Amino acid sequence: MHHPQIRIGALLLLACVLWLHASGQAIVITGQVTSANDGSPLPRVKVEIKGTNQSVTTDPKGHYQIRAAGNASLIFSLPGMKTTEMAVRNRNVINIAMEPVEMEARVEQVIVKLPGNVAWKSTGLVLRASDRVEFKATGEVCFSNGHPDSCVSPAGYPREHYWNDFPGDWEYCGDPVVGEEFGGVEGHAGLIAKDRNGLFFVGKDGVFTGKTGSLEIGINDCSLTGDYYNTGEFTVVIKVVRGGK
Fold first, then answer.
1. How far apart (Å, rounded) are the C-alpha atoms in residues 83 and 101?
2. How far apart are CA 218 and CA 26, in angstroms?
3. What is the pLDDT of residue 13?
4. What's the CATH number for 106-242?
5. 20 to 30 Å CA-CA from 8: which of 69, 97, 99, 172?
6. Residues 66 and 91: beta-carbon distance below 8 Å
7. Can you list the positions of beta strands (E) in 4-150?
8. Rounded distance between C-alpha atoms, residue 6 and residue 9, angstroms
9. Could you tell me the mean pLDDT of each successive run of 10 residues in the chain, 245 residues long?
């Protein structure tokens, strides 16, 4: 007569052996890899069986198919995303949402002196659309041979005020930066800048994104050619924050 405990032990041992055998069997695993940010599919993700050189990549819709042991682990990797490891656990479908790598923000700062008689001055900065650009400008520039009533800050000179005080100048002044009723944007005065896409008004303080290419700064001085008789200068602190979330 067999002892009951011996029988139970034998059955448990047999079950473990069968489970290990099944876990070691290769199975076909499919799934989709998406972005945790917006749920969009991620193509070109490398899906690798841990500890081997076997891998596949996701298609344009983020789908993949790979054959691996039921007790294996899959490693998902893509530049710019956090590498993720997932245990198979005998699953035939494994979908995963990958998190982006948190890039540390890098700050670059320059101080540029802009004399009143200089048309444009390079900042030495090359911008990308993702950069955040912050301007802080101080100082004073005087037009019309240094006439005290023509002195302005980077914020600009009221257009109607200038028009009334200096009608002779206004007659030959163009409007290089259009769309506002401030002298810093039309006619004389005010701090402006230009990137790859053209001119934009800065003023005393300004924060911008979406700017690209080499950054130059200037003074809205009619034809934007600079005036030999202009006096004074603006001091412009420009801070560029690159990267980060």
1. 9
2. 68
3. 53
4. 2.60.120.430
5. 69
6. no
7. 26-35, 46-49, 55-57, 63-69, 73-77, 84-87, 96-98, 106-115, 120-127, 132-142
8. 5
9. 56 49 77 93 96 96 96 95 95 95 83 88 92 94 68 72 58 48 49 88 89 90 57 93 73
